[in-house]
Amino acid sequence: MSIETLIKNLLLEILPRMKKKVLIFLTGGTVHAETLLKVLADFEFTNYDLVISESGSKVLDQELVQKLQGRVLQSIEEVDASLQGAGFVLVPVMTRNTLCKVAVGIADNLVTTGIARAIMMNKEIIVVRDSYAPDNPVNISNGLSQNPVYNSMLNNYEQSLEAAGVKFVDFPEFKGVVQEKIGSLFLPDQSQTEQPSGEAHPSRREVMLTGSILTLNDVKKIQPGNLVQIKEGTIITPLARDYLDMNNISVKVNK
């Protein structure tokens, strides 16, 4: 059985018990956009809302968008009402335009305004970074990552939003993050149990991470052999788990 089928079967069991909405912002990015929309369509959500930018309406495959079968919001009042009851927010395709505007506080359309409001409400926001990321292979092959100063600007904007609580993930982690996040929101106790970290090692450095999701991008910053402290209930993505194991990085869960 494929991982896609396993995830789909799991979600079919979860969705009848869903009480909170998932709010999805769709922009006009193209990197992995079609695949990401297919992933969302496969999840067959029954209780989520969509906000689509003008460029997204022009660029994204409308047949795929329709397969999502979500309620398309048209006003900031509708977005505010959706955010109030949203379990978390997804931005499966974020363009460089949207990244830059949100990072500097520009809210000039329904998408940038909605994401800004979600940040101000301290909502859980998961963003797939591939469309704008300078290190994405597609952007590199298209010659869009050749200016290091511009790349640094994008990375700084990403870091600013990370500091505000936005969680950025790469495409390979998208399915796992959404699957585990939905499980933590809508199933009974989904908190993970970590193995004891053992006796303290005199040369081991402890790193405290406060986010609710631990991705590969997060753990790459940790040196091999160190110990990472996380809060109880933190989700560790499969790729992050593999990196921790391969690099002998222990995990300590703080209650």
Walkthrough of the structure:
It is globular and about 50 Å long. It has helices at residues 3-14, 33-43, 54-59, 62-67, 76-85, 96-103, 110-120, 137-141, 148-163, 171-186, 216-219, 238-246; strands at residues 21-26, 48-52, 71-72, 86-93, 125-128, 166-169, 206-208, 213-214, 227-231, 235-236, 250-254. Strand 1, helix 2 and strand 2 form a beta-alpha-beta unit. Helix content is 45%, strand content 18%. The protein has 12 helices and 11 strands. Mean pLDDT is 77; it is low at 1-18 and 185-200. It has 2 domains: 3-185, Rossmann fold (3-Layer(aba) Sandwich), CATH 3.40.50.1950; 191-254, no CATH class. The chain is of the alpha/beta class. Strands 3-2-1-4-5-6 form a 6-stranded parallel beta sheet. A 3-stranded parallel beta sheet has the order 7-9-11, with no helix packed on it. Helix 5 runs parallel beside helix 7 (110-120).
Instruction: Provide the CATH topology of the largest domain.
Output: Rossmann fold
Characterize the overall form: globular
Quickly give the CATH architecture of the largest domain.
Answer: 3-Layer(aba) Sandwich
Strand content: 15-25%
